[in-house]
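Q:
My hope is that you can spare some time for a protein that puzzles me. I hope you can help me see how the letters and the tokens relate. Thank you; the sequence and its tokens follow:
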Amino acid sequence: METSLRLPIELVLHVITCCLPGKDEILPPDHATTKTLVSFTLVCKETRRLATRYLREHCVYLNDDRRLRALLLLMPERPDLRKIHQLFLAPFDVDGSIDDQPTAIWVKELFNFTCLSLRRLVMDIPLRSVRPENDHLDVRRIMAEGFQRLESLEEFVSVQDELYLEAPHLGLDVPLWRGWPKLRRLALYNVDADDAFWAFVAAMPALETLVLTRADSLRDCNMKEEYRGNTDRPLKVLLVNIEDDQVRFGNMIRFNWDIVDEERKMTIMLYNVPGIYARVHPIEGCQRFVKAAAADGTLWDLQGEIVQHLPKIPHPNVAELP
């Protein structure tokens, strides 16, 4: 009579751990690792405990309203699900509109549950689809109240805009990310990088890296003068665009850089998105690239061509003049 051999549970748990991605990756539902972890939740109590933990750590990828709603329904009875450290959030139709009050309320409730634990957020939401004057369902205010609670956030990526939820008539006349004191890494799309923007950036006490995709006002603002005039903290700035639309050195205001940033504490780099993304529409290509790099955790490590200070032209010695 044949007897079946069972693998030690320690070995099975080790197999689960070996399936894990890098610590900064957020995996979508159709990823092979996500499916594997889901399968292990059905094997036994021990594998379910470990796989559930890893799903919470690496696979909170809410790319439709159905997944968001399902997670919220579980949270009151599952306190462990509130301890989410990183998530990808895209519950609205990315090609549609945020003019959907129930989903806006669910976003706010999600942040109410996770605000103490959430450290990293990648957001792909079409906030510009509803302007303040057309917000008849009050969705912008509802979501803004949720975002204001994310005071533990350390990394934030907005794929489609600059977190376009400011509404002066509601008392929201400063960027919402300005209220996140622990924020170390910030990525925004098509922000107006004017003098006021750099003043807000300089006021962020922990910010280390700033990624700006297809930003405006780069030719009109002396970035180093505005930033370094308000703070002495180091900062890495990555300007992302397709090569044809990238700002050129000669079009950037670089006066006084040797004076305001003599120690080169602020590094500004130009990064051209890879050709596979650049071949599609510039806006869509850049957004796809940032979304992918943010989800797999590589966005903050990107390096580009450093924008140099203006060359020094030596003054001739009066005694040497003819």
